[in-house]
Amino acid sequence: MSVAELNQRFAISNHVQFKEITPGIIAAEVSNSHANSNIVLQGAHVATWQPRGQEPVIWLSPFAKFAPGKSIRGGVPICWPWFGPHASDSKLPGHGYARTVMWDVQETRALPDGGTFLAFGLVETDATRAQWPHASTARLEVVVGKTLRVELITANTGKAAFVLGEALHTYFQISDVAQMKIRGLEGCDYLDKVGEPARRTQQDAIVIESEVDRVYVDTEADCVIEDKGLKRAIRIAKQGSRSTVVWNPWTEKANKMGDFGENGFRNMVCVESANAFDNLVTFQPGETHRLVVEYSVEPL
Asked: Is 15 a residue of the active site?
């Protein structure tokens, strides 16, 4: 749909407008009494969320590139239908294709509490079916309000079972990585992907002083990012997710990526709600799975 058609069908006064932010890239601009948010239709990518009177909660790189077929650095990328490298074909894109293809707007509505509901559906093409031959649908539901609620819904619409990996690869804005710690994963086992892969157990709160890339398994716990610099805590409460990924690329990797900016890695941390590695989801015909995350801010 064109921007004009989207606005005709789905715009809501004082809630949602659609704009072309760069050639070929359209975003839903959400603004209500509780918060502002931008959601890019390519990837159904929640790029920003900023509650009224607060610093942004979702980090978006100032150097993020918005281009057809390219992933966006920051926000809430959707990893689907696999997490990490493809299990059998290294030529396929890491973390799947959902974050770089178009999604349709399916629904928008203003909520009684002043929040805004939006729903998006993954568009299937010959190219996506070549990568993922399983009959299935993916839908993303977003509620922008006092909290940010994101729900990724997958359904097996075929006659055979399949196994799926997924994640909401959320980037959070922090004052400085040295001023932050993450609680909620104490005692959890994780796969450490930095250096020689190893399985370890988290002892205390997570403190980041170098590159971190960890997949915590068998955990449904809330995580809390405590940020002394901004005097706030970001709570990540999830359902339908058995893995949590914590990631910060640190200096060398961030510099190689080219879209972090100088020392950009210091102002972000990824805490991803996922089903990965030990926690892949098996879908029987007709089954539906919901990965739900709610992000909220508390004073510290």
From this structure: no
